[in-house]
Amino acid sequence: xxxxxxxxxxxxxxSAEDLPAYESWIISHMGGRVETFRRRLLPQIQAFTDLRGxxxxxxxxxxxxxxxxxxxxxxxxxxxxxxDPPSLEMAxxxxxxxxxxxxxxxxxxxxxxxxxxxxxxxxxxxFVLMNGVLEHVVxxxxxPAVLLEAxxxxxxxxxxxxxxxPNSLWPFDRHTTGLPLVPWLPSPVAHxxxxxxxxxxxGSDLDSRGRRGMTFGQIVRPLRKxxxxxxxxxxxxxxxxxxxxxxxxxxxxxxxxxxANLVLEGMLGPLMSRFGIPTMALGPFIEYxxxxxxx
Length: 295
Known about the structure:
The protein contains ten helices and nine strands. By secondary structure, the protein is α/β, with parallel strands linked by helices. The strands form two sheets. It has a seven-stranded mixed sheet with strand order 3-2-1-4-5-9-7, with helices on both faces. The protein has a two-stranded antiparallel ribbon with strand order 6-8. α3 links the parallel β1 and β2. It is globular. The model has no long low-confidence stretch (mean pLDDT 94).
């Protein structure tokens, strides 16, 4: 993407040079994530729907990697929305590089606290993507409002696709610090713990970096409590598989993944399906979750 884009990426992570994942973050923003999403995320989305002809919202688009993937797979308009101005500026540069700017409407949104805070009309979109978003919403109490706003702007029959959100059932933080117990600790304790072990920079917000995700129940409960009719397509449409489309092309499942498939899909899957619970609800991440709006 060029030296100007690289400089902006480095500025985004300016306080994190000494953290273990720093270089991988730089590489990821410089194009690695776009390629990963093409190979791993897009096939899972397409296991549920054909994006062509849809109006799409990339809710929490960040620097635009997922938006590029969506634009390559659909022929309709896309709205790329985020709260962070520098990320949106970088997203615009990325869209220009890929020649898709004319099809993307960019929207800076304010933090969502209640119904109506998302400055978009109701029932505007056929497909809403929230990839790696919910774990960054702070304070934690605002997350139900974010989900309800995503639901509000979807048309009846539309789909909300949630992925890359850590499952807070798990005590090990695989997303942010790589440390045990971080998702379960009170915020001040988690902050000090991560700083002490060199996994977080003092003075920055660990919660907003994504150290605590959500459970499947925490995602669907606010919607159902508000009277929304939610169909979990992972259960009703794709056989309740951990990966609805199977493994990415050219990859073989690891030994750990094969065991997970056996236990969750083969042994627990049928029982979980009876209760409308996707198998990924017991995995380390809420990924490839597809919810269809009936009301």
